[in-house]
Amino acid sequence: MTGLPAVVLRGGRVVDGRGGEPTRADVLVVGNRIAGVGTGLAGIADADVVDCADRYVLPGLVDVHSHADATVFESEVQRALLRQGVTSVVAGQDGVSYAPGDGSYATTYFGALLGPHPAYGCGGVASLLAAYDGAVPVNVAYLVPHGTVRHEVLGDDDRAPTDDELVAMEALVRRGLAEGAVGLSTGLDYVPGLFADAAEIARLCVPVAEASGTYVTHMRGGYEHAAAGGVTEVVEICRASGVRGHLSHYHGPGDTLVALLDEAAVDGVALTYDAYPYRAGCTLLSMPVLPPDLLREPVNVAVARLRDPAYRAWLLREWMPSVASVPATGPGWEGRLRLAFVAAERHAWAAGLTPVDAAARVDADVHTFLLDLLADSDLAVTAVMPVPDPRPVDDLAVLVRDSRHMGGSDGIYLGTHPHPRGWGSFARLLGRHTRERADLTWGEAAAHLSAHPVSRLGLGTRGRVEPGAVADLIVVDPSTVTDQATYADPRHPAVGIDDVLVAGVPVLHDGALTGATPGTGIRRSP
Fold it and tell me: Are 183 and 132 a contacting pair, CB within 8 Å?
């Protein structure tokens, strides 16, 4: 032995991440690396033993779309991730997060999704990634958020940048990539991403392509049956810049997306995507409820307008009744969506209720109540929202089976009644879509949820169970792994994954956190 700490995962079946099926083998870990995979391994007698009988050993899973940028420091979120087998998350999503800058824009505009960061105040991507080193039990990779970059240079302006401003934005992107970011993200339905055209984004994707990074996008114009227009713009950006593209949290007809990606591939643009296995979504309540022109305003301006008696009267008279005609909400939306997070303390009790039920409790008109809720919370309210045409499981399976699919929870961890996807997405992919439905084999599951995202995003030498790889490893009971979180009880941890190693260190044992924090801010590795 080398004198380094050693662990052996004994008696299980290894799913190595290359697509093959489970094979009986022991796994020897020395330090933070896998030292051997097979039978009769030298050095096992001196190692700490994890009994893996009747269980599978997989590489740690990667959540390629997470909003745990700040909440990953919380033990409940750590448990939610690890009980699903997630050992790495990709943050900086949808174009808005903390770095570059002092983080204030993220906590203002995306406060309901992210919350305040406990360890970052300024210093850029390098400082943010360093904040995770040795401080959390999982790894965190980061995308340079286009909206944050744009806000740093243009402030709240909704105009196109000048040439000098584009140069300044490009410099921030280059710096973030040099400091370890794995790519660039955009949120083209959010401010200020919606102000950017394809040419601006393509310009900022050039350094991403040069660094072998990835362009990750919440597409423009919504999803569902409107996805074709968004995909077309992504293809245009990728073709103009040479960057590789990835579509965030796709929800919509599976056959439609597969056809669009096949068409893009014929044109030489290879796109990937993530999709969470649920039929309802979750977003800022303001997006489907308030007028688009109001959402283009800075938060303080929008809140002031919500409090203006004349504008409020117009909203109640003309706008709010019209929301029912929008496909994203539909008739009766006030009784179907469910409030998830409410920033205003005086209204916090409303989380978990529909707007109709919440308004009834205070004997208020439902639309008046919602405007008060949003104004008092500085728009920091999220809601779980049914989609117009809920996808049957067979249609979700089309997305899961495609080789371009990766796992992404779009997990938002704030609020007493968040969407259950942050607690259940990966366990549902393993339990329902792998064991029960066989949409994926176990070998394919390890590839889709670990090896493929590691390779695509440049997350280093993890993602495989093979000698020399970083020992991010999970032990899965294939007969019991499943999600337990529901819309009524969304914070319920998954079952079936009780032992997890990150960088060779046990971080979950017998289903409980060990207290070890070997996680790191992952720096992009070509």
Answer: no
Neighbours of 393 (CB within 10 A): 14
Distances (CA, A) of 399 to 11, 43, 85, 261, 352: 34, 43, 21, 11, 30
What span, in angstroms and rounded, lies between the C-alpha atoms of 165 and 170?
A: 8
CA distance 181 to 190: 21
pTM for this prediction: 0.97
* pLDDT tens, residue by residue, 222-267: 777 788 899 999 999 999 999 999 999 998 889 999 999 999 999 8
Which of 485, 223, 488, 483 is closest to 338 using CA atoms?
488
Note if the bond before 192 is cis, omega within 30 degrees: yes
Q: What is the DSSP string of 438-493?
A: -SS-HHHHHIIIIIHHHHHHT--S-SS-STTSB--EEEE-TTT-B----SSSTTPP
- Both structure tokens of 189: 């339905």
Residue 86 CA to residue 81 CA, distance in Å, equals: 5
Q: Which residue has the tokens 């998830």?
A: 340
Alpha-carbon 155 to chain mean position = 26
Which residue, among 419, 416, 356, has the nearest Cα to 384 in the 3D structure? 419
Tens digits of residue pLDDT in 165-223: 999 999 999 999 999 999 999 999 999 999 999 999 999 999 999 999 999 999 998 77
Q: CA–CA separation, 6 vs 49, rounded Å?
A: 9
Assigned token pair, 322? 């019209």
90, β-bridge pairs: 141
- What element of type H or E holds 281? strand 280-284
In the predicted model, is pLDDT for residue 413 greater than 90? yes
